[in-house]
From TrEMBL:
This is DUF3304 domain-containing protein. The lineage of its organism: Bacteria, Pseudomonadati, Pseudomonadota, Gammaproteobacteria, Lysobacterales. Keywords: Membrane, Transmembrane, Transmembrane helix. The keyword Membrane applies. Pfam families: DUF3304. The chain crosses the membrane at residues 67-87.
Length: 232
């Protein structure tokens, strides 16, 4: 017998139902079933005709389908909410490098700078190695401050050397931290009369968008020691 698909008259009643055919090849017959998947609680392997015979009307099936569709939309919405990115904790903090710069026009120099108890190095022209940093909240808030402590020393006088206790003095101030949104680094400016600025920013001194002073114009580290110019 050639490959023919048909439904014999004497086949069981279940074979004649929609979606079921008897396929015969070379004298062997096999029952082929067509399955439909429905997420409505009425039997996921039943055709519409089968479910009607089992007592489910089309109205019931439509009602159940709408209910499950609504539930599916609700679950999808919950999944979207769960996958949404979380806002950072306003109390959470991050570390930012600190570059200290000395703008005082006198012939003194700043040897050590501490911010909130962490040593951040010497105050220079704005370059060099960054020794320490500051902890900042992700969101700036009014009243945000840091404790800055620095050591300012007189230039060394080779003819009249004095101990550090006499040549240097320590100053400590509570300094407001200027408002920021995005931070690439933090710049600390030591100005005249012991004024201090702390500016977290994405750009640094010398950039047109930097909200603070330009780089210092005097390089204290290249000045000759006291007494040397007098002996020349």
């Amino acid at each position: 017998m050639s490959n023919v698909a048909y439904t014999p008259k004497d086949a069981p009643a279940t074979v004649a139902k929609p979606g079921r055919v008897l396929i015969c090849r070379n004298g062997e017959c096999k029952l082929s079933l067509k399955f439909g998947v429905y997420f409505d609680g009425t039997g996921n392997n039943q055709e519409l005709g089968d479910r009607a015979e089992d007592g489910y009307s089309r109205t019931d099936m439509a009602r159940r389908s709408r209910w499950f569709a609504t539930a599916g939309v609700a679950l999808f919405a919950l999944a979207l909410v769960a996958c949404a990115p979380k806002q950072p904790d306003p109390d959470a903090t991050f570390g930012s490098s600190v570059t200290a710069m000395d703008h005082d026009p006198s012939d003194t120099f700043v040897r050590n700078v501490f911010v909130d108890g962490t040593w951040v190095g010497e105050a220079s022209m704005g370059g060099g190695i960054v020794a320490g940093g500051i902890s900042l909240p992700y969101r700036w808030r009014p009243g945000l401050t840091a404790v800055v402590r620095w050591e300012r020393c007189d230039r060394f006088d080779r003819n009249h050397p004095v101990p550090d206790e006499e040549a240097c003095r320590w100053t400590e101030k509570v300094v407001p931290i200027q408002k920021y949104e995005r931070v690439g680094g933090t710049w600390l400016h030591l100005l005249s009369d012991d004024e201090v600025l702390i500016i977290p920013s994405m750009v640094g001194p010398g950039h047109p968008a930097y909200p603070g002073p330009d780089l210092p114009t005097k390089d204290f580290f290249h000045m000759p020691p006291k007494g040397k110019e007098q002996t020349q």
